[in-house]
Amino acid sequence: MNLYEAVYNRKSVRHYKMELLPQDFFRNLRKFKQGLQPFVPKLKYSLELFNAMDGEARVKGMFCVKAPYYMVLFAEPGEHAMINAGYLLEQIVLYMTSHGVGTCYQGMAKTVGLHGPAGMEAVMVVAFGYAAEKLHRESFRAKRLALKELCVFKEDSTEETRLMLQAARLAPSAFNRQPWRFLVYQNRIHIFSRKESFPLWGNEERIDFDMGIMLYHITAAAEECWRDIEFTRKENLSARETRNRQYFMSVLLS
Hints:
Layout: H1 3-7, H2 23-34, E1 45-51, E2 58-60, E3 69-75, H3 81-98, E4 102-106, E5 110-112, E6 121-129, H4 147-150, E7 151-153, H5 159-169, E8 180-184, E9 188-194, H6 204-224, E10 229-232, E11 245-253
Parallel strand pairs: 7-8
Antiparallel strand pairs: 1-3, 2-5, 3-6, 4-6, 8-9, 9-11, 10-11
């Protein structure tokens, strides 16, 4: 299973076996981390793994799950920092899924006694380990809105465009709120984010994090189709803001 295939199989695992993972898994994970694709290359980050069974990590907060391991992303602040965080962590999450390890984002978690490099803050925690429940899920069982509810099609979409949209549709988000909407042409997708009034964790920050996850799903689908894409902002679209939607970004297919 590659990362694109994991998009269609991954689910949030909330019950874990309190068992150690093999050292081979961590060695291979370290190699994989070296090839991560950041969304914003200039932003520094650090991914730290903690064994909770050895008392290395204490994670507290509403909705936190008990797991044998936690991964914490520390990152320096900056423009698109939370988008970058979601984009990076989803690569790791899909990698773990493809290697038989369950994961669950801990969006409202607080780390106790865990410190990252100077100038960096803990921005997200991921619980992981062997699942004590079903690890994978068929994509049709995912509680997601249909494409017709997420998209406005201005032109007939290509097969590649639809694959990217299907992958984006399956991206996880806080409370499955799916804050993205798409204006679709044959060779470009304009992305809009939903304005939130309900005060979730960090609200705007959490939306940006979720959008970063979704953008990586588009990237994974594009790579599967052997298509080059570019993420960009079209300032002329910023005026299309409505009461519930605001322009976020565009995907250009070459």
